[in-house]
User: Fold this.
Amino acid sequence: MAKIVLGKRPETFKKTVTIPMLDGTKGTIECTFRYRTRKEFGALVDGIRADAEKLGAQATSEAAPVEEGAPAKAWSMRDHFEKLVGTNADYMLQILDGWNLDVPLNAESLQQLSDELPAASEAIVEAYRVATIEGRLGN
Assistant:
């Protein structure tokens, strides 16, 4: 058994995340996550929630008619998913430090991942949440 030593926190940790593929098979991505304590994870989630509330308020004000009697901008599924993909990428940039894919880890590649494999961002975020607040790193 490993000896427990407090105060020697790692900067990162690795976890292989299983991704459900569109054809029913499973793929994997080895993710290098940024280490956060439970409290730091809570602060991260609070910040993301605050940003989402601002974005929601902005969307509401943008949907309001410019002139009285003018039609409001219609809600669009495409616009909704475009914002969702961008939000997923922003969040994953805050939790990931690297990965083993053949493309660089950046906003563009994360948006592409979220767009092409919708379950991937959910699996990555959930793996990070479990490791951070429940302390389970097993694959």
Remarks:
- The chain has a mean pLDDT of 84.
- The helical segments are 38-63, 77-95, 107-116, 118-134.
- The chain has four helices and three strands.
